[in-house]
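Hey, quick one: can you model this chain's 3D structure?
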Amino acid sequence: RGRDRRAVTHHYDLSNEFFALILGQSMTYSCAIFSRGARTLEEAQRTKLELVCAKLGLVPGERVLDVGCGWGSFALHAAGEHGVHVTGITLSEPQAVLARERAAAAGLAERVEVRVADYRDLVDERFDAVASIGMVEHVGSANIDAYARQLAAVLRPGGRLLNHGIARLRYGDPEAGPFSERFVFPDAAPLHVSRVLTAIETAGLEPTHIEGFRLDYVRTLQEWARNLDEHRERAEALIGTERMRIWRLYVRAARRGFERGFTSVFQVLAQRPYERL
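Sure thing. Here's the predicted structure for all 277 residues.
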């Protein structure tokens, strides 16, 4: 757990302002969905958030867990648009602070709780739905089964899981390259979607839908790269010249990975069966 916290801190605790320059108003650090008609990054991110809510079939008053909640974008959308109560967890204190501020500013503090916590810390809590958006990439093959079991355990019978994450497409390739491992995402390990599905099924959940958004991530990364270049001077002042070079290379290399079919991103929807009598 300590290693996971250090890895997350290395990547996400750069600066909330720095990520705002890249991500824009939504502060959503995962694949936006342009393929359903969105024209701008903000529209595409809202499309993604609403699609997750729709797939989960959220009903007002339900309890929802947001695993790896980041700066709170999904939690705010789900609570504000669908009337649910959301518990968001992250290992990044700066993320949690800003997420709470955003919830308060939106008048949603009573329906959005943000904790600095590990998903393995959830004990004796039950939720109607779980959204995990852009978090499974940090789990890796060694922990994917425990991850799926834990999310299954916190779901009530009939509860739904939406797992949104980057996946490798080619067998035989390493989980992550040395550049990303050393400079960008320590311990990041995108798995094949078949491995994620196996973990979900083994945990006792029933997969009900899977959808890929590879080309949507190409467009998302193009938008992030453009934002980074447009705000280059301020971004460099925030994180330094060397790290700025790393990030400009990282978003372009990531885009090429999706363009060339090295990686994709998948949403996997699953349900915990009702108890058998």
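One thing worth noting: The longest strand covers residues 155-168.
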